[in-house]
């Protein structure tokens, strides 16, 4: 009798344990713990980031905002505190002494230290964007279009208890990002380092056989720094420029998935990115990653604070078919000479137009028009941040400029799809 | 390397000649020769006593030698030829121009060229290096005014952009009106640290100890009173300086400000233990003001010996910097031993993340070293070979070993230790090094040194090689001194 009960008990216990292991709740728990930062990138709330730093260091950081000098600090978010991180000023055109863009190097002083699993965290100051939200909305749209991009959310930054301003938390493109998004991270990651001092931008032209012409400028190695393999980039660039027409597609397939690249380009230009792969100042704002044990590269979007540029009529072939010759991206110009790639580009633009209008309803039941996905996002985020943005007294814009920028964004979001469809149709009629 | 080889051949040729023959003006200056003869006749005993084993002083050994401040230079009266008259050019120790006993100027040159290697993955280390190439002049005016000027021609640390040391080394005047209270003004070494005060061409090893390089202050501009008593049985140096030396500064580190320094040495056992050779004891301290005017940390840093890899970044400091050292220097026959302990303590007023006061930052170092002249000469710095190379001998061969440690931490604190420059409790970081060396002094001009250095950075995260492992560095130095 005892033995029977014993076996029954053991059997039941085993079933409970097995059931627990296989249950959906268990799987969700594993997923949550493997992405501890998900809550930080929840863009439905404005987070509070609290920094404790020497007042002297904070003033120095602002005074020397053009330098990358690191200062020690403690960081707190909700109940999570991480001690002894390094804070530095960051950015290119967005660098500011009054409202500095910030990079938190979580593991600078302690190699294995992480904050919610992250080694780095970026707080973008949005000093080039009165609306504060071009960057976040753009990255969200990239992800909406299934293009890998950083997660972002809004935060109020407090330094030694004083409110500093509204910032955008940006997921850095590093090994953690690569692992999460590309399922590997031992390849070669390069940040495109725009040369502000150069009169003529680098536009993917071939500079010769010397790998040093490509690495570290403009392709700055972020991994494998001691052996960045600029020679593979040299061959990639040679192929873009010098390979014969008959073999170009075949040879390029070793280095780039051109269809995927067209998708990246299509999303970027739907968003009217003025400082991107086909930007007004030459190519800019992307990372390049070469996969492990391959010569295959992929582009990753970065810094989209100059999207929603000018008007919904921003031309989809800007700096491709117009603009100074030496600003035109050689890769883009050559790729678009192929009908299938041009179609892929145009189709992506149409897909973006449709996605931006998802959920739109011109005549809703209550009589009010329901906005599409993009317009809804702008409206929702505006409601989320307006109080924090208005009380941000060090932003380089007035509150009226903030409101005007939001209005422009809403207009763009509302009208961009139709404008792009028209431009695509015009192109196909040619 | 061609100029260096040319120098080497010239040096070997010079070294193989008798000292008088090395004087290019000897034949043209019969008066000078006569003076020498007179001098030898007049004071034979004094000369013999002063020069002991060798009558051919090394070029960097002269009584006004610039690169050692370990002992105060004798007054010019001691180095004058008592009946020297007239204008003449001589080359005994250095090429020299003299006007009687009124004026003297000696030309000097020091060249040290290295071939070296270290751990894999140190791409910035030049395998060959013209490490030091210094030229200078020294001499005196009348009997009471000594002067020296020395300039570095190829300052490697300047080239590396790491340490903006001035190419001007010693630029100073020494007034000897009061023999036991001489006054030195200009740029020279702050009197602190036995190893730091030993001249670069006299050192038993290719590189100075870690403490000498990173804790001792080295040169600065100042005014110092110094002298000796009891036949050099007690010596003192005491002075004020504009800053706290080149070693505390870099392109990013402002360094300390006004500094008071004092050093005393003595040979207290000279009368008691004559059979045990000479035992010198020394101690020194400095006090400097430390400001936090620079937005960058103003503390001391720790670097490895050859590669100068930073294993300890400076921390924020403010208040005062206090240094103290004690040293012992023992020489007996062909052997010598040295040991030195150095302590530096920096105030950190209002340097916490919350602008609070922090416990002092502390740096400490010690070394013990020993040398043995296999060829039997009496130990001296510089070594003087009994039988010079290509002059019937093979020069002097010496083996040397040094073990040392340099480490940094804070004097207290209740917080958990961190590496950041405002940590209440500084996570300790140190470097231990063993140096094994052989020095071959071919003649009074040329020396070859071979050193193997094993280092281990104690904080594995700040070790330049993976997994906190120890690493070896190797260096061969060819030294030519004129």
Give the secondary structure arrangement, pairings included:
The complex is a heterodimer of chains A (430) and B (482).
Chain A: H1 2-22, H2 24-34, E1 46-53, H3 55-63, E2 71-77, E3 80-90, E4 101-105, E5 120-124, H4 134-144, E6 152-159, E7 162-170, H5 175-182, E8 188-192, E9 219-221, H6 230-242, H7 245-252, H8 258-270, E10 286-290, E11 297-301, H9 330-335, H10 339-356, H11 373-390, H12 399-429
Parallel strand pairs in A: 1-6
Antiparallel strand pairs in A: 1-2, 2-3, 3-4, 4-5, 5-7, 6-7, 8-9, 8-10, 10-11
Helix pairs in contact in A: 8-10, 10-12, 11-12
Chain B: H1 2-15, H2 30-42, H3 44-51, H4 76-79, E1 87-91, E2 95-99, E3 103-117, E4 128-141, E5 145-152, H5 156-159, E6 168-175, E7 182-189, H6 194-197, H7 210-214, E8 219-229, E9 234-241, E10 259-266, E11 278-290, E12 302-303, E13 310-312, E14 319-332, E15 335-348, E16 358-373, E17 396-410, E18 429-441, E19 446-457, E20 471-481
Antiparallel strand pairs in B: 1-2, 2-3, 3-4, 3-20, 4-5, 5-6, 6-7, 7-8, 8-9, 9-10, 10-11, 11-14, 12-13, 14-15, 15-16, 16-17, 17-18, 18-19, 19-20
């Amino acid at each position: 009798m005892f033995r029977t009960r014993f076996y029954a008990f053991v059997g039941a216990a085993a079933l409970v344990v097995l059931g627990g292991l296989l249950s959906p709740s268990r799987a969700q728990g594993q997923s949550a713990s493997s992405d501890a930062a998900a809550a930080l990138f929840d863009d439905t709330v404005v987070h509070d980031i609290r920094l404790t730093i020497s007042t002297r260091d904070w003033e120095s950081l602002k005074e020397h905002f053009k330098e990358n000098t690191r200062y020690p600090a403690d960081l707190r978010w909700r109940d999570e505190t991480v001690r002894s991180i390094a804070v530095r000023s960051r950015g290119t055109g967005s660098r500011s002494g009054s409202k500095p863009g910030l990079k938190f190097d979580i593991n600078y002083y302690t190699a294995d230290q992480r904050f919610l699993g992250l080694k780095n965290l970026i707080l973008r100051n949005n000093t080039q964007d009165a609306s504060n939200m071009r960057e976040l909305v753009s990255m969200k749209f990239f992800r909406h279009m299934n293009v890998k991009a950083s997660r972002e959310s809004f935060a109020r930054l407090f330094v030694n208890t004083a409110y500093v301003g509204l910032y955008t938390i940006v997921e850095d493109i590093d090994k953690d990002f690569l692992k999460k998004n590309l399922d590997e991270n031992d390849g070669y990651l390069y940040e495109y380092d725009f040369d502000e001092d150069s009169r003529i931008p680098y536009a993917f032209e071939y500079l010769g056989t010397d790998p040093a012409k490509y690495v570290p400028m403009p392709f700055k190695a972020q991994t494998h720094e001691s052996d960045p393999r600029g020679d593979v980039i040299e061959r990639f660039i040679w192929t873009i420029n010098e390979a014969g027409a008959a073999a170009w597609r075949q040879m390029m397939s070793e280095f780039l998935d051109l269809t995927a690249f067209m998708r990246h380009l299509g999303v970027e230009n739907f968003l009217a990115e003025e400082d991107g792969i086909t930007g007004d100042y030459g190519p800019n704002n992307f990372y390049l990653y070469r996969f492990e044990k391959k010569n295959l590269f992929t582009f990753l979007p970065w810094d989209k604070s100059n999207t929603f540029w000018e008007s919904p009529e921003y031309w989809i072939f800007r700096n491709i078919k117009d603009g100074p010759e030496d600003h035109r991206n050689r890769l883009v110009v050559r790729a678009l000479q192929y009908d299938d790639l041009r179609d892929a580009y145009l189709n992506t633009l149409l897909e973006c137009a449709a996605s931006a209008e998802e959920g739109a309803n011109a005549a809703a039941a209550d009589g009010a028009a329901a906005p599409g996905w993009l317009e809804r996002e702008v409206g929702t985020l505006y409601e989320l941040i307006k109080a924090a943005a208005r009380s941000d007294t060090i932003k380089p814009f007035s509150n009226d400029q903030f409101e005007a920028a939001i209005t422009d964004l809403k207009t763009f979001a509302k009208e961009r799809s139709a404008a792009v469809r028209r431009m695509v149709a015009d192109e196909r009629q040619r | 390397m061609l100029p260096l080889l040319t120098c080497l051949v010239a040096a070997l040729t010079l070294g193989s000649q008798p000292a008088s023959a090395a004087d290019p003006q000897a034949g043209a200056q019969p008066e000078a020769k006569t003076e020498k003869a007179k001098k030898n006749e007049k004071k034979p005993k004094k000369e013999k006593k002063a020069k002991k084993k060798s009558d051919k002083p090394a070029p960097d050994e002269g009584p006004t030698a610039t690169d050692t401040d370990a002992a105060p230079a004798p007054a010019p009266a001691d180095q004058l030829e008592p009946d020297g008259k007239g204008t003449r050019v001589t080359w005994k120790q250095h090429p020299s121009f003299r006007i009687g006993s009124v004026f003297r100027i000696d030309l000097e040159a020091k060249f040290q060229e290295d071939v070296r290697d270290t751990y894999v993955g140190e791409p910035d280390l030049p395998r060959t290096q013209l490490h030091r190439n210094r030229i200078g002049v020294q001499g005196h005016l009348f009997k009471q005014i000594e002067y020296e000027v020395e300039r570095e021609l190829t300052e490697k640390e300047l080239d590396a952009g790491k340490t903006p040391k001035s190419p001007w080394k010693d630029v100073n005047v020494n007034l000897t009106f009061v023999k036991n209270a001489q006054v030195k003004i200009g740029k020279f070494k702050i009197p602190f640290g036995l190893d730091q005060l030993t001249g670069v061409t006299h050192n038993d090893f290719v590189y100075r100890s870690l403490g000498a390089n990173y804790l001792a202050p080295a040169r600065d501009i100042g005014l110092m009173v110094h002298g000796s008593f009891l036949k050099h049985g007690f010596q003192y140096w005491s002075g004020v300086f504009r800053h706290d030396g080149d070693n505390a500064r870099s392109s990013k580190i402002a360094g300390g400000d006004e500094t008071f320094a004092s050093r005393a040495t003595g040979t207290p056992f000279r009368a008691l233990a004559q059979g045990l050779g000479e035992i010198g004891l020394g101690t020194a301290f400095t006090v400097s003001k430390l400001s936090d005017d620079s937005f960058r940390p103003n503390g001391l840093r720790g670097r490895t010996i050859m590669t100068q890899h930073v294993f300890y970044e400076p921390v924020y400091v403010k208040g005062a910097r206090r240094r103290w050292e004690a040293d012992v220097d023992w020489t007996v026959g062909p052997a010598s031993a040295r040991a030195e302990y150095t302590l530096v303590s920096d105030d950190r007023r209002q340097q916490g993340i919350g602008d609070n006061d922090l416990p002092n930052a502390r740096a400490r170092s010690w070394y013990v070293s020993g040398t043995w002249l296999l060829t039997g000469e009496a130990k001296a710095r510089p070594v003087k070979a009994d039988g010079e190379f290509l002059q019937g001998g093979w020069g002097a061969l010496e083996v040397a070993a040094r073990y040392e440690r340099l480490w940094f931490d804070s004097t207290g604190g209740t917080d958990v230790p961190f590496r950041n420059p405002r940590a209440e409790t500084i996570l300790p970081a140190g470097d231990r090094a063993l140096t094994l060396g052989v020095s071959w002094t071919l003649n009074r001009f040329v020396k070859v040194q071979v050193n193997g250095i094993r280092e281990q950075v104690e904080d594995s995260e700040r070790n330049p090689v993976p997994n906190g492992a120890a690493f070896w560095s190797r260096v061969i130095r060819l030294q030519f001194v004129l």
